[in-house]
Amino acid sequence: MKRTTEGIIREKAFSSRDEYEKVISDSVKKAALERRVVKDIVSEIGHASQDWSRDLGRIAETELQDAFEYGKAIALYEEAGEGKKYYKTPFPGACRHCITLYLTRGVGSEPILFTYQELLENGTNIGRKTKDWKAVLGTVHPFCRCPLHVKHKETDEWDEKLQMYVPKEKEKSAGQIKIAVGDKILVV
Ligand SMILES: [Zn+2]
Q1: Choosing a second label site near 96 at 20 to 30 A (CA), which of 104, 128, 152, 182?
Q2: CA dihedral of 6, 11, 13, 16, whole degrees rounded to 10
Q3: Is residue 78 part of a domain?
Q4: Ligand 1 geometric centre to CA of 84 (Å)
């Protein structure tokens, strides 16, 4: 007899789908942290939830991608150090949610800057309704691959053509010396 997710939730006396998904989520995060292979993770979910039904693969895929994006975010944060701003650059074909959540004025425009803490505190969108999705460190939605970046210097400026933050014009000519003559500034 084929077991359904709903059947398992009843049978295993999970009080709700939320609790059931939390069991899955906890299993994956634990396994991901321990750097276990995908096969082990799926097996872990199956044992924790006693659910071997069809959508296990999809849930595992979403959770894994989320855990993967988190892993990258942590690495970026550790490298960049304190006090930096972070942003995501949704691909031109990204969904409207990612475009609204991460960009100031639609496709190609300057990204919205966040602190690492803000994105971290927004948690994960897994299990949230579409209207409640937030800008997060992980994936906004299943199959979201919008990459996270760090703005290295406060003075860096958004280059719309390059789609990245570049050093301010003044900073580029760091080798030049400015001399004030009267009310004029000479660059030597
Ligand atoms: Zn996305």
Answers
A1: 152
A2: 0
A3: no
A4: 22
